[in-house]
Design a protein that fits this description.
heterodimer; A: alpha+beta; Rossmann fold; Dna Ligase, domain 1; D-amino Acid Aminotransferase, Chain A, domain 1; 3 domains; 8-stranded antiparallel β-sheet; 5-stranded parallel β-sheet; 15 helices; 20 strands; 33% helix; globular; B: mainly beta; OB fold (Dihydrolipoamide Acetyltransferase, E2P); 4-stranded antiparallel β-sheet
């Protein structure tokens, strides 16, 4: 059943992006919003808008009953969850389906399976996707710990098998250190959890973050190549590229094929992303997790492949088979996206929910700005700080960095403090230009004072 | 009677998390750098400091509700 009327269960720039895709497909749109978002751009652009609750996300964008009620009252036949909020909530996907509506995304069971770290790792291994080497389950006794560590290779991480989060994690660089640390770890695990069992995992030193965009229709899957998202602050991506620099053709093919294998193995429907750690030293890649939704950084993939990912996920949700086969998807040039956040990078990224007094957007071939801004808009303080994403496309990576620097110079968000100065400094960084970056690069670079008021 | 104002717009909280007691209750002693509440702005929690010494005289802004920059959050006497 093709979708006739789509409810957008999100806000901000992604709501604008979804409405644009729906309109291009001739689909009517319903935008839900909180009381604090009555004047947001997507509300103005949608065919209909429904207020679903107070400013607090828990009572609006995270309220399953309020969203379903809005869908029923407006006669929407499908729900697009965007990213964040309820996009990876299996209970929501199930509730939408139970209400007789289409959830634009995978089956609830797929969301559940990929959202469970252990189940996702099992699914990845079964599909032949490399995972970070570790002991198969718990190990007990000095000899078994040493044997497991030798098998995965040093350095290794020692964790309590019964523990969660980062508690009690120790890193051993070599065997003598492991021999010293393992008894401490066991004693601590015994004291904390009443269980001295340990788990050993290989440490990937200064890994890069590389991810593969996949599209599936529930039966077949294709990939739209990879993205490089190694520039992160507090685990939040800051600057993203398509593709990843310096990969050999063989590595790129193996990486992308493994993502398709996993997507097909789980009967994936919609747009998804398989995330990996990439070890520059060895050229090896390891599965981290699969995100079962559209991602913030999807535009860089759209720029280099020409595929409209949001339109494609809406079409397959409506029951259509994938409109593209793998041989129809090719990469042309290089794209970069930067996240423009309402934060002051010179004051520890303090949020800045101000009023936009003027707006100048760079224009030209290969420049795109996905946003939800207009002059006079008061940025609400209740949600995340993402204002928009500046995306550039050029024949080569070096040309794309130059183009980004130029486009940033022409982007002006009057009245607000934003992350534009950070991106200007990054665009001028030799480390970034030469590809000497990884997931542990940005925070020390900031701490070393590379970003100053004069930058 | 000094008013403690919100430094930013956001959502004001009386306690460090929903399962904890409020930072202050009426009659509590207040030092200048004591935290009296949190304002959540764009998913970041900013501590609100008393900035004056005295005795806590109660919250003015309700818990977990939106506030504007400059709104009176609590009073110290």
């Amino acid at each position: 059943m093709a979708i006739g009327k789509l409810l957008v269960a999100n806000r901000g720039e992604i709501a604008v992006r979804i409405i644009r895709a729906a309109k291009a497909l001739g689909i009517r749109t319903v935008q839900v919003h909180s009381e604090a978002d009555a004047d947001m751009l997507a509300v103005k652009q949608a065919d209909e808008a429904v207020c679903i609750g107070p400013a607090s996300a828990a009572q609006s964008y995270l309220s399953i009953p309020a969203i379903l009620k809005a869908a029923q009252e407006t006669g929407a036949d499908a729900v697009h969850p965007g990213y964040g909020f309820l996009s990876e909530n299996a209970e929501f996907a199930r509730a939408v389906a139970d209400a007789g509506l289409i959830f634009v995304g995978p089956e609830a069971a797929t969301i559940e399976r990929m959202g469970d770290k252990v189940a996702a790792r099992v699914a990845a291994k079964a599909a032949g996707v490399p995972v970070v080497p570790g002991s198969e389950g718990r190990v007990e006794g000095e000899a078994a710990v040493m044997e497991a560590a030798r098998a995965v290779g040093f350095p290794v991480m020692i964790k309590a098998a019964a523990g969660g989060g980062g508690r009690g994690i120790r890193i051993a660089q070599y065997e003598a250190e492991l021999a010293r640390l393992a008894p401490q770890a066991r004693a601590e695990a015994q004291a904390a959890f009443g269980d001295g069992g340990l788990y050993i995992e290989k440490v990937i030193v200064n890994p890069r973050h590389i991810e593969v965009q996949v599209l599936g229709d529930g039966t077949n899957a294709v990939h739209c190549y990879e993205r490089e998202c190694s520039l992160q602050r507090r685990r939040q991506k800051v600057w993203e590229e398509a593709g990843a620099f310096g990969l050999s053709d063989e590595t790129r093919a193996a990486l992308c094929d493994s993502a398709v294998a996993l997507a097909e193995a789980v009967g994936y429907r919609g747009a998804g992303t398989v995330e990996y750690l990439y070890d520059d030293a060895s050229g090896a890649f390891y599965f981290i997790e699969m995100n079962t939704r559209i991602q913030v950084e999807h535009p860089v993939t759209e720029m280099v492949t020409g595929v409209d990912l949001v339109a494609e996920m809406i079409k397959v949700a409506g029951g259509a088979p994938l409109s593209l086969s793998q041989d129809q998807i090719a990469v042309n040039g290089h794209a970069i996206e930067v996240r423009i956040n309402a934060e002051d990078p010179l004051r520890q990224f303090m949020p800045f929910p101000g009023k936009l007094t003027s707006l100048a957007i760079p224009e030209g071939e290969g420049i795109r700005f996905d946003h939800f801004l207009f002059e006079g808009y008061q940025i609400p303080p209740f949600y995340d700080s993402l204002l928009g994403k500046l995306i550039v496309h050029a024949p080569t990576r070096a040309a794309a960095i130059d183009k980004m620097a130029e486009a940033l110079g022409a982007l002006d968000l009057g009245g607000l403090k934003t992350t534009i100065p950070l991106h200007k400094a990054l665009a001028a960084s030799d480390d970034l230009r030469e590809g000497r970056v990884h997931t542990q690069w940005l925070e020390p670079w900031l701490a070393a004072g590379n970003l100053t008021a004069s930058a | 009677m000094p008013d403690i104002q919100s430094p930013l717009p956001g959502t004001f909280y009386h306690a460090p998390d929903p399962n904890s007691a409020p930072f202050k209750k009426p009659g509590d002693a207040v030092a200048a750098d004591d935290t009296i509440g949190l304002v959540e702005v764009m998913k970041t929690f900013i501590e609100v400091k008393a900035e004056v010494e005295g005795t806590f005289d109660g919250f003015v802004a309700p818990n977990a509700e939106p506030v504007q920059a400059g709104d009176v959050l609590a009073k110290v006497r």
